[in-house]
Design a protein that fits this description.
Chain lengths: 453, 447
């Protein structure tokens, strides 16, 4: 569907973030882990601020703080010193090490440095999980998925065999803490024992506490990751990651069946997710969730007229765009442009699958987009609503249309970490939001000022 | 708290030992510094120049993390609010990024017709060895606007080095504009970035005094103004490091004297205006300045009384980017009757820390380049009521049940000028007095 994709040399207002940021967030979802960037100081500080502004939580990302001489002679010594210092201060169980553009470019061999560290360092030694994340090659989503893959590769299979036959792995990709809590509720209601990797539901949406935790509590427990190889199956959300993912590693190494589905956004995608859970658990969909689905359908009917045929631009991470586009299509909103800074090469195909035969015409779908490109196309497309993260706000403002905030980052509102996207419950919230945004727009634009819409 | 041994020399307690503090060191590996990089320093300083193109030559992150995150306002063009990047890809890293940079510059200059272009180098550009000077020279020749490299590879030092790089970049502009018709009573405002519109307030004060402002450097800045900055009679410099180098350069090259000021807090704000007036030593200007300060204070002080009463005796901690601002904050808190129990910065100099030690009470912690765990333990140890810092410090305060005031580049509130003092008091008050602290578990038992 990619007709005339804009083809500029420079990038203006990117619709993607850099690779180690994704890796750092994934590492934050593992119990007792501290993310560590092997590179210069600035990258870590910038990413911390960016992530903090979304979650409003402390995000400690350590750095090798390489300076010029290290860049010339290699960063091995600083990496080791940094790991020792992080261990002393944080006593982590795991250190998640991601590289940056700098250390990739100078060709630091992190694996070798870690072997040396193993031999040279005495005493307390956390487990090291390492991932290569040059940003000139991919976006934060590659960083996220590669970090998850590396965690699985390093830690799975080191634990005990499961005997319960109720164990499933869920690899949900980059979703909100609220989504993860809800996934946990669903699997609990199915009496399944789910290992959700990563689990940022507590670490990046923590509670008030009396004492300050150096490493926020929560995250996927080490023991659960270690036992992932003996689960019945893995369910992996998203289709745009590389072939080698957490799910495929588990299936190749331990024969755990890997089920890849779209992010369960909207009824159709969520039905597929629940079907898999029913099959795996051998029980029907729990009554509570069936009721939520029923109420959702009821509200779809109540609200459909307000939104039918409204034109939407959807942007952000590819898998989120696929999920959102499928959902918008099923409620009668017309996606007209689906854009991402990512470049998996699969976006158009997956959107076509997600929307099935609902849309009279497929939207324009472009990978490798930035907000300059999106704005340029938006001018002729005349959208009614934008669906995506905060960075689309300038465009929404320019066009005076509502922005439905989803995904990451939410930098201009409270509670980005508590936005629910997935499942029947998430669809309910999104649906109400979208319908109300359209009603509010109509109400605001009306000269009459009706209080009854 | 156990400190990392290497960090001990960067922390001092007023009155306990003779003053020693080592600073301007590289951040310690693994210590989670709150500092950024050289590039960040350059970007902060040059960012508010609103009619220039700011192209970040590097992979995407460095540009995207600095997209529209600062509150620097412009009264006209807003080119500075866009984030331009060459978005280097693997192939560029292997074969060099010069061609991409050249083409990106032509593309963007044609698209936006900027008055000048700044090209920032980031870490990997330093490694792959692109010749920024050569590219800029070529593009400058063909486009007829100044195209200026900013040598800001992140790993070549800390934020301070970035300030220097930014000043060298601006120095290339100064001296190229027409300076006829500039009043002998004229100044450049250096080191105010027009966060939330602050420079407009300061500007208005100077106008009321009868002093002409030639160039804003860099808040609400314009290339043409900077090009004629050498026509001003005096440089009025705020903030510790950021634009000091440029002032120094202009003294050497054009013999323009400079004074250092701060616009935060009542004392410093008034002092800044008086210093400028005294420099010109013109009775009319002096008179107008006295009047201005009198008027402003008559309006402000009664309003402040309310906050003083409420905040008296509360304890404050400060951790900011540059230590010069810390001085003003210490005084501002004092005016409110509050006690400062910790003060630190990312990039202060030894002299500045020494002076801080002199003006703070015994027991006050003074710290250079702190990390989250240190800050946490200081806040706990001193049972602080309010913490002043930037976004990265905010969650630390909140998790400890401590009120917070944002005094960094991201803020959207005016904190400079006389009106800024009032806003500051209000900001502090509205966080300290909020009833939400009644629920945090530091103050009541967990239920
Ligand atoms: S150098 Fe690479 S890792 Fe660092 S901020 Fe820039 S893009 Fe991200
Ligand atoms: S790559 Fe270098 S210039 Fe860019 S953010 Fe990181 S430290 Fe700063």
């Amino acid at each position: 569907m990619s007709k005339n994709p804009p083809n500029y040399i420079s990038t203006t207002n990117a619709c993607k973030l850099c690779t180690p940021l994704g890796a750092s967030i994934a590492f934050k979802g593992i119990e007792g882990a501290v993310p560590y960037l092997h590179g210069s100081q600035g990258c870590a500080t910038y990413m911390r601020r960016y992530i903090i502004s979304h979650y409003n939580e402390p995000i400690d990302i350590a750095s090798s703080s390489l300076s010029e001489k290290h860049a010339v002679y290699g960063g091995g010594a600083n990496l080791k010193l940094g790991l020792i210092n992080v261990t002393k201060k944080y006593h982590p169980r795991i250190i998640g090490i991601a590289t940056t553009c700098l250390t990739e470019t100078i060709g630091d061999d992190v694996k070798m440095f870690l072997r040396q560290y193993e031999q040279e360092v005495e005493g307390e030694k956390p487990i090291m999980v390492q991932v290569g994340t040059p940003s000139y090659n991919g976006t934060h989503m590659e960083g996220f998925h590669d970090a998850v893959a590396s965690v699985v590769d390093t830690l799975a299979g080191t634990g005990e065999e499961s005997v319960t036959n109720r164990d499933v792995n869920i690899l949900p990709g980059f979703i909100s803490p609220a989504d993860i809590r809800y996934l946990r509720e669903i699997t609990d209601d199915y009496s399944l024992r789910a290992t959700i990797l990563p689990d940022i539901s507590d670490t990046l949406d923590g509670q008030a506490a009396k004492t300050y935790e150096k490493i926020q509590l929560g995250g996927t427990p080490f023991s659960a990751i270690a036992a992932m190889g003996s689960a019945m199956a893995s369910i992996e959300f998203g289709h745009t990651m590389k072939e080698k993912s957490g799910g495929t590693i588990l299936s190749e190494k331990y024969g755990v069946k890997n089920i890849r589905i779209s992010q369960p956004v909207g009824i159709s995608a969520t039905d597929r997710f629940f079907d898999h859970l029913s099959q795996l658990s051998g029980v029907e969909i729990p009554e509570k969730h069936k009721a939520e689905r029923g109420r959702l359908v009821d509200s779809y009917v109540d609200g459909h007229k307000y939104i039918y045929g409204k034109k939407a631009i959807v942007y952000g991470e590819e898998d989120m765009v696929v999920g959102m586009t499928g959902f918008l299509a099923e409620i009668g909103v017309m996606p007209i442009l689906c854009a991402s800074g990512g470049k998996s090469g699969k976006l158009a195909e997956k959107i076509a699958e997600a929307t099935g035969d609902i849309l009279p015409e497929q939207p324009r779908i472009h990978e490798g987009m930035d907000f300059y490109d999106i704005s340029e196309l938006a001018e002729t497309l005349e959208p009614d609503v934008l669906v995506g993260h905060s960075k689309g706000y300038p465009l929404a403002r320019k066009l005076s249309i509502p922005l439905i905030r989803v995904g990451f980052p939410i930098h201009d509102r409270m509670g980005g970490q508590r936005i629910l996207h997935l499942g029947y419950r998430g669809a309910q919230q999104l649906f109400d939001l979208i319908v109300n945004a359209c009603i509010a727009k109509k109400q605001g634009d009306s000269p009459v000022g009706y209080s009854y819409m | 708290m156990e400190l990392l041994k290497e960090r001990e020399e960067q922390i001092h307690r007023t009155g306990e030992q003779p003053f020693t503090l080592s600073c301007n060191k590289d951040s310690l590996a693994g210590a989670v510094s709150q500092r950024a990089c050289v590039f960040c320093g350059s970007r902060v300083v040059l960012y508010p120049i609103a009619d220039a193109l700011h192209l970040v030559h590097g992979p995407i992150g460095c540009a995207v993390y600095t997209w529209d995150i600062r509150g620097a306002l412009s009264s006209g063009p807003e080119l500075h609010r866009l984030s331009f990047s060459t978005d280097l890809q693997e192939i560029d890293v292997i074969f060099g990024g010069e061609k991409k940079l050249t083409n990106a510059l032509f593309e963007l200059i044609e698209r936006h017709s900027p008055k000048a272009a700044f090209v920032y180098s980031t870490c990997i550009v330093g490694i792959i060895g692109d010749d920024l000077e050569a590219v800029c020279r070529q593009v400058e020749k063909e486009t007829d606007i100044p195209v200026i490299p900013v040598l800001s590879e992140g790993f070549k030092g800390n934020k301070r080095a970035g300030y220097t790089a930014a000043c060298s970049a601006m120095a290339r502009l100064v001296g190229n504009g027409d300076i006829s018709n500039i009043s002998p009573y004229s100044i450049n405002i250096l080191g105010d970035f027009n966060l939330a519109g602050e420079i407009w307030i300061i500007h208005a004060y100077f106008e009321r005094m009868g002093v002409e402002v030639v160039a804003n450097i860099t808040g609400d800045g314009r290339i043409a103004d900077i090009q004629r900055a050498h026509g001003a009679a005096l440089n009025v410099v705020q903030c510790s490091g950021a634009t000091m180098d440029l002032a120094r350069l202009m003294t050497d090259e054009y013999g323009i004297p400079s004074i250092r000021v701060s616009y935060f807090g009542v004392e410093d704000m008034a002092q800044a205006l008086y210093d400028v007036a005294e420099h010109f030593n013109d009775p009319e200007i002096l008179e107008k300045t006295r009047e201005l300060v009198k008027e402003e204070l008559e309006e402000l002080l009664p309003k402040l009384d309310f906050y003083k009463k409420a905040l008296k005796g509360k304890k404050a901690a400060i951790y900011v980017g540059g230590s010069f601002k810390a001085f003003s904050l210490v005084k501002a808190f004092r005016l409110l009757g509050m006690d400062v129990v910790m003060v630190g910065s990312q990039t202060g100099t030894e002299q500045e820390y020494k002076e801080l030690a002199e003006i703070t009470d015994p027991g006050t912690i003074i710290v250079d380049d702190a990390n989250p765990l240190e800050l946490t333990s200081f806040l706990e140890e001193q049972s602080v009521d309010i913490f002043v810092g930037g976004v990265k410090e905010r969650p630390i305060a909140y998790k400890l049940g401590v009120a917070f005031c944002d005094h960094n580049h991201e803020r959207k509130e005016i904190l400079a000028g006389f009106v800024g003092m009032l806003n500051f008091a209000e900001e502090v008050y509205s966080s300290v007095m909020s009833p939400v602290w009644r629920f945090t578990y530091q103050n009541v038992e967990d239920r």
